[in-house]
Amino acid sequence: MILGEESTGLSGAEEAEIETIRKHKQELLDDIKKLKEEIAEVFAEIECFQHAEEKQEADNNPGEQTRQVE
Fold this sequence. Notes:
The chain contains two helices and no strands. The chain is an all-alpha fold. The longest helix has 49 residues, at 12-60. Residues 51-70 are annotated as: Disordered.
């Protein structure tokens, strides 16, 4: 049997169930993609806050920064 051929040997109900599963799978994959993007945004925000905090600490303690560099 050739892949994609019309006659699959499945009943109409089985074909409908497979289509429902495929749609649900695609929805889950889309959700996973969105979650990965949101996680990446959160990590970027955390990194930004960390850099701002480090800069503030360096501004408040300029002697500390030169000692760390040496």
